[in-house]
Amino acid sequence: xxxxxxxxxxxxxxxxFLLLCSPALADIYRYIDENGxxxxxxxxxxxxxxxxxxxxxxxxxxxxSPRASIGAEKPAPASSTLSSAYSTIIxxxxxxxxxxxxxxxxxVKVESDFNPYALSRKGAMGLMQLMPQTAVDLExxxxxxxxxxxxxxxxxxxxxxxRYEGNxxxxxxxxxxxxxxxxxxxxxxxxxxTQKYVERILKIYSGTGKTFTPRYTIFVGYxxxxxxxxxxxxxxxxxxxxxxxxxxxx
Length: 250
Hints:
Elements: E1 3-5, H1 8-19, E2 26-32, E3 38-41, E4 50-55, H2 79-85, H3 87-97, H4 101-112, H5 132-137, H6 146-163, H7 168-177, H8 179-185, H9 192-204, E5 216-222, E6 228-231, E7 243-247
Antiparallel strand pairs: 1-3, 2-3, 2-4, 5-6, 5-7
Helix pairs in contact: 3-6, 4-9, 6-7, 7-8, 7-9
């Protein structure tokens, strides 16, 4: 069963996205539990469930549509076809944030199998399976929009690669289980799901030779005596005008 339990605000946002979807591939039902929380599921349990809308991948092009029309003999395209359909968006996002596009293709394959309307039991959404709060932090307004979802996911991946100084395994582990878990264990957490997740992506990832050099963000300004000030924590110098700079090395 696919369900989402969140606040009423987040639930209403998800509902809005579903209502904007094109004709259905799988029915989505809405119900309110004993705590007054709105939930969405793909399983109809009876009178308490109201069918809202069906969620289906948006049409990319007639020859690469993620689903075949009813009665059509043409089979649904393989994920490799869908991968090609989203390559332009992935490449643009990777060029912007300096991430290997082969790695992002591998992540999308494992996360959603290139289904832009994928919805996990924990509430992760879209091609790169962004959690609601992560999407908000990344300023992703429409999580089911392939372009917004991919750009947000790649931006977050870039942040993780920087945080773990280019260590792809730790970045992937944090993408799956969260930064807190990686910090707690100091390595890939001993969770079967996370370990298998990292293994699957690295097995698919071919690599292109691009080096994942971490980028360091520093803030530059001047003290009262005119001396140069360099800091990575501008909150300690709120009375000064600091300029943000990103460098590949310190």
